[in-house]
Amino acid sequence: MSSIPDGGSVPAPGAVLLDAAVTTRCRRRVHLEHDPAAGRAVGATGVEGAGQIVLPEPDPGVEMRVADAAEHRAQLAARFAADLVDAYRRVPDGRRSERVEATRALLADPAVRAVGAAELPPDEGRRGHAELLVRAGGDDAGWYPVIVVRHRVTDPGTGALTSPLDRPHPSSLTVDPDRKPRAVSRDVLRLAHLHRMLAAAGLGARRAWGGVVGLDADCVVWTDLAAGPGQEAGRSPLDTYDRRFADRLAVATAARTGGPALAEPSRITECRRCPWWPVCESELRRADDVSLVVRGEDALRLRGRGITTVRSLAALDPRQGLPAPTEDGDEQVGGELTADLREAVALARAWRADVPLVRRVRRPEVPRGAVEVDVDMESLGEDGAYLWGVLLSGVDVGLDHGYRGFVTWDPVPTRDEARSFAAFWAWLTDVRRRAAERGLSFRSYCYNEQAENRWLRGSVERFAGEPGIPAAAEVEAFIASDEWIDLFPAVSTSFLCPHGKGLKRVAPSAGFGWRDPEAGGENSMRWYRRAVGLDGEPPEPAMRDRLLIYNEDDVRATHALRTWMTSDAVLAVPHLDDLRPDPGEPGAPQDRVSAAACAAPRPCG
Length: 605
Prior knowledge:
Layout: H1 27-34, H2 60-84, E1 88-90, H3 96-107, E2 114-119, E3 129-137, E4 140-148, E5 154-156, E6 161-163, E7 174-175, E8 179-181, H4 185-200, E9 209-213, E10 220-224, H5 237-257, H6 277-287, H7 296-303, H8 310-314, H9 341-353, E11 358-359, E12 371-380, E13 384-394, E14 402-407, H10 416-437, E15 442-446, H11 449-462, H12 472-480, E16 484-486, H13 487-494, E17 495-496, H14 503-506, H15 521-532, H16 541-565, E18 580-581, E19 591-592, H17 595-599
Parallel strand pairs: 1-2, 4-9, 12-15, 15-16
Antiparallel strand pairs: 2-3, 3-4, 5-8, 6-7, 6-10, 9-10, 11-17, 12-13, 13-14, 18-19
């Protein structure tokens, strides 16, 4: 085997080194993370120094997922050590520079075929580590990267290229008859990042293979990074990676060196969970930036036509269309909107008037039944669904009206989920049967069915054959029936929502408020850990009560929202044609709304 190279030049102090995460991260966030002045920006904390150390308090849900991912990686490392025996070595913990040197030493040992927790030599603006490196073998002295992630990387189907965990090598891969690959861009781009790092250090294999082990931890899923389709049409993953990384490196370098910023703030979907959002929000609000109401490519197109503020968008007359692109505007940037201009203008006017909802239709429609059930499920990430909450209302069918929770307090994943799910399904089936026997229509409701459907299907798949678990066909028939109603599309069809369409954003307009001021999905995961003692502490009964109250309020919110949407009270919400611009003096409020709009409910809590 050839000798291990030195790994390139040593990065200068303060040099920009980026990990693979930047390739799927907002360009402005990359700027802020490398701008030494970002810590003094409005919205940041008062800590001096580089951007990375001035972030708000960590989100408890994010902290939990990070901890779970670390445990998952540790379990897989132990598995690799047991399966690969003497061919496997793990890089010891220590400072990054120490891990780099330890990695070099192990890669130079011809007896070592696999290296765990490998820290690659930083070079060409990159830094990164791989959970596993496997030697290519034969006349190829290079190494293949394998990463371990805590999410699913395959779906039922065929076509995934997989190898067993005890043979984590492309030479052992086969076309899997039971799995198809799930496209997760951050995984593929991280593998491309590691491939480029290995190549820069003279350690890259001739074939650009990369492997990933997912949540199920039962195989390695392989991708040919040079041949497979990337996230950009007509480009391989390596091509996509190279373009994105070069761009992010330029953004970060400009920020670090005080050059002109290559990325300005603009509101996008990622902002909802970004720790830098308070900084960007302050700047966007000061500028009254149009992306506050129209996001993504549409915001770019509006700017290309000189419409840079919410105020200027609100002042448009949709009947006259958009102004012509500015002379210096890019043709693509100044293109037509994907959103309806009439609705975009209404959103801007609602934003400026602080109107939480605007009707898109004269009267919203939600299918109703004589017997009705509202459903909400609580889960812990990908580990399991521990609570199915229901609220029965409508005509009496001989069962108590009100809330009921079907729950397991055994830490998920657990076989006791089968019992709680079977009890929920038996109860729901009984309600449906009783309604049918009485000739009554039945409807059940949830808000954004993706999570409920995922665990309806997942519970049947995981617990097939357990007592009370229905056949998959039975669950699929229910999901496809007109008895299962997702309120989220009804809200999207009926309303413009300047501040978002989440249940906790829209239900207050129906007069509903949660009893717990900290109610939210991320907090519920933290409460669950305490409720079942996942972190080694005794289980807390008070947290169990808190979760049941939270779940009950969620189903009651769904009930309140749909009954309000089908009542005359919803007509107090202004229609988009009710919103008019105010041709007042510059600097004066630009929008006035009808008396009905002024009487509309406002967000609470």
